[in-house]
Amino acid sequence: MSACPASFRPSPALDAAVIAREAFAASIFDALRADSVDGPGVTRTSYMADEQRAHDRFAELARGLGLAVSVDAAGNLAARFAGSRPDLPAWITGSHLDSVHVGGNFDGAAGVIAGLVAIAAMIEAGIRPERDIVLMAFRAEESSTWFVGRHGGHLGSRAALGSLWEGELDSAIHVATGRSLRAMITEAGFDADRIEAGPPILNPADYAGYIEVHIEQGPILENRAIPIGIVSGIRGAYRARNAKALGAYSHSGAVPHEYRQDAVFAMADLVMALDGEWARRRAAGEDLVVTVGKFATEADRHSLTKVPGQVDFALDIRSQSRETLDGMEAFLRQKARTIEAERGVALTLDPFDRSSPSLMAPELVAALQAGADGLPIPYLTMASGGGHDAQDFADAGIPAAMIFVRNDRGSHNPDEAMEIADFMQATRVLANVLWAVAGAG
Question: In this structure, are residues 241 and 352 in contact, taking their beta carbons and an 8 Å threshold?
Fold first, then answer.
């Protein structure tokens, strides 16, 4: 893989063409929002009509630039900007177009628009790289929102990379329809059998690398007043998606403390123990975040006058360190056994999903840093707390890296507040680095 030297200088013509495309980029964001508005936010449901409208819009825009547009067996969109040496491995840039339910307009879409703007600017500047550059819009990245059952997330990119688990096409169940991933892909007009049969749609030998622009989903860049981040790695996640605390329902006034099997108090013990272990490890300098969610008693059975017999919950543990993740799982299971004995409950954690941390390619991280320095644009090298399609490319052996865009008020909510000026800074870095690594003329 070619990389930007420390003395990298941007193409003045390309950089000017990117900057001139700001209104074009803003208009795409506006049109995308209008296509998928849902109350205060947007909803682009995986493998349903609102996600498809977004894909159709980008296919039309890409064809308007003269790009060769195709759709793979998983429904992922690819728009290819032909280089002068199509025999060389190509570069991919892009992200996803689905959103969470009533989410923001920038999560995912920013990466697809950035890639489109970068390619449009190259065409306008008369730049043709040696290697093909492929803009991709992936399906179903927000799989934890739209699918339940056994699955590993990021279903569109993993389907293309041949990384789906055995049986995952049938074990991932869409929350809006109750149908399997296989059925959703088939009913949307794509080819689940081709995905299952292989070989991978995206062969690592055919690609030199993948660069993804994405909004930051936390407050770090905003709090430090820095417009972009360059991602060093993506935290792994250990997750109990459908965990339960099972005790016994009984009368709230008649059953004394020593005879109760109270699922809520058992869960309170577990939550506080996890919080304490998180604080201990954070104080020791470990990278770690812990979340307990989907925390609920049974709505059709719970009552003010009943000792609660069941709590359903989900658990999400993330870190850049595999050692930390393994240590937290061991702590969780040991603490669960202790609480079971003390409270007379059963804590069911399995199935327990494990995705390992994914380091971004060091040479590509260095290329992005050199590109930002050469423009110059201030940046922060940082970890990603959220998962992204980039990690699936890295796990498949394709060098991957990410550029974050400063984004106020978080993500996965209607209040995402990315500024177009910050987006354009990230797009300038993307375009100039793609121009360098794909073979500058």
Answer: no
User: d(Cα 278, Cα 325) in Å, to the nearest integer?
Assistant: 11
Cα dihedral 154, 155, 159, 160 in deg (nearest 10): -50
Q: Are 96 and 408 in contact (CB under 8 A)?
A: no
Query: Mean pLDDT across the stretch 188-206?
Result: 97
Whole-model pTM: value is 0.86
What does 226-261 look like in DSSP terms, one character per residue? -SEEEEEEE-EEEEEEEEEEE---EETTTS-GGG--
Least Cα distance to 25 among 121, 137, 157 occurs for 121
Paired sense of beta strands 358-359 and 379-384, if any: unpaired
Q: Which of 320, 152, 342 is nearest to 245 (CA)?
A: 342
| Count of CB atoms situated within 10 Å of the CB of 303 | 10
d(C-alpha 431, C-alpha 144), whole Å: 31
Q: State how far Cα 186 lies from the chain centre.
A: 24
Share of the chain above pLDDT 90, in %: 93
Do 399 and 359 touch, CB atoms closer than 8 A?
no
User: Does residue 18 come out as left (phi exceeding 0), alpha (psi in the -120 to 50 range) or beta?
Assistant: alpha
Determine contact, residues 112/137, Cβ cutoff 8 Å: yes
What are the structural domain ranges in the chain? 12-233+358-437, 236-355
Tokens of 137: 């819009």
* Under 8 Å between Cβ of 202 and 175: no
DSSP assignments along 248-295, one per residue:
--EETTTS-GGG---HHHHHHHHHHHHHHHHHHHHHTT---EEEEEEE
Cβ burial of 329 (10 Å; 0-12, 13-18, 19+) is middle
Strand-pairing partners, residue 233, are 359, 383
Nearest alpha-carbon partner for 182 in 280, 309, 343, 74: 74
CATH of domain 236-355: 3.30.70.360
Residues of 17-26 as b/e, b for ≥16 C-beta within 10 angstroms?
A: bbeebeeebe
CB 177 within 8 A of CB 184: yes
Q: Cite the DSSP H helix spans in 65-108.
A: none
Please state which CATH class domain 12-233+358-437 belongs to: alpha beta
pLDDT tens digits along 243-294: 999 999 999 999 999 999 999 999 999 999 999 999 999 999 999 999 998 8
DSSP, collapsed to helix, strand or coil, labels residue 42 as: strand
